[in-house]
Amino acid sequence: MSASAIPAALERGESPARRALRRFFRHKLAVVGLVVVLAFVLIALLAPWIAPYDPIETSWSRIRKPPSAEHWFGTDENGRDVLSRVIWGARASLMAGVVSVLGAIAIGVPLGLLAGLAGGWVDALLSRIADAMLSVPFLILAIALAAFLGPALENAMLAIAITASPVFVRLARGMALDAKSTDWVEAARALGNPPWRTALVHVLPNIVPPLLVQGTLAIAEAIIAEASLSFLGLGQQPPSPSWGSMLNSAQRFLDPAPWLAIAPGVAIFVVVLAFNLMGDGLRDALDPRADRK
């Protein structure tokens, strides 16, 4: 056996999960993304203890103060500490991103499995609905749903979840159609297993890897959507801090107080980039073709 074949032989003895983890941590940019995401999650969880000021406390004596040793990111038009509001705003943005995507998965995956395994008019109906929703730009549909539901962070998360669900419908449907013709699914049907058991035992485990990738990338898109809805007044409501609503308030003071827009804007950019880097790393780590490279 050649020297180059020995590592490959050893690698084939690894479990799929261990091999995927090793490939992920070999992806340097993905690891950077993971570290950044974990840092922001930690910041959001520890916000009550690490924020230097109350994020909604106003002070007329410190209106629009530039960054200083006392206020690292300056203060806003109401005298509130911008750093504290960015820290607390991480809670709203990350929660909206994660909860919205979990909601989209909860809606989309069962419907996709139903469409793929049932076939016939059920598949045709659900596929047409998903295609119709995907034909409308994501953000426009989310804005329309949020406006219909009313301005609130909970309604914004529901609107984003509904808007993002067709992607997971198509993902689950495709995997169900692939598994439908396999020997083990045919055997399960021949043994009289109900469709729900076939979906849970034989189809759902195969969806997990692409679901992790798509879910991670969808969180980045959901964070942008939440920021956009909050910017338009359809998400987190004042005085509660949100990166999107902070950008909305900052647009009136871009010339005299640019720091008001820089801090939340950079936070959105960094978090979204980190989730995208993680998603790319997960895609490479979970791709079976990577074993043959």
Automatic annotation (TrEMBL):
<comment type="similarity">
    <text>Belongs to the binding-protein-dependent transport system permease family.</text>
</comment>
<keyword id="KW-0812">Transmembrane</keyword>
<feature type="transmembrane region" description="Helical">
    <location>
        <begin position="259"/>
        <end position="278"/>
    </location>
</feature>
<keyword id="KW-1003">Cell membrane</keyword>
<keyword id="KW-1133">Transmembrane helix</keyword>
<feature type="transmembrane region" description="Helical">
    <location>
        <begin position="129"/>
        <end position="149"/>
    </location>
</feature>
<keyword id="KW-0813">Transport</keyword>
<dbReference type="GO" id="GO:0055085">
    <property type="term" value="P:transmembrane transport"/>
</dbReference>
<dbReference type="Pfam" id="PF12911">
    <property type="entry name" value="OppC_N"/>
</dbReference>
<keyword id="KW-0472">Membrane</keyword>
<dbReference type="InterPro" id="IPR050366">
    <property type="entry name" value="BP-dependent_transpt_permease"/>
</dbReference>
<dbReference type="InterPro" id="IPR000515">
    <property type="entry name" value="MetI-like"/>
</dbReference>
<feature type="transmembrane region" description="Helical">
    <location>
        <begin position="29"/>
        <end position="51"/>
    </location>
</feature>
<dbReference type="InterPro" id="IPR025966">
    <property type="entry name" value="OppC_N"/>
</dbReference>
<protein>
    <submittedName>
        <fullName>Diguanylate cyclase</fullName>
    </submittedName>
</protein>
<dbReference type="Pfam" id="PF00528">
    <property type="entry name" value="BPD_transp_1"/>
</dbReference>
<dbReference type="InterPro" id="IPR035906">
    <property type="entry name" value="MetI-like_sf"/>
</dbReference>
<feature type="transmembrane region" description="Helical">
    <location>
        <begin position="94"/>
        <end position="117"/>
    </location>
</feature>
<feature type="domain" description="ABC transmembrane type-1">
    <location>
        <begin position="90"/>
        <end position="279"/>
    </location>
</feature>
<dbReference type="GO" id="GO:0005886">
    <property type="term" value="C:plasma membrane"/>
</dbReference>
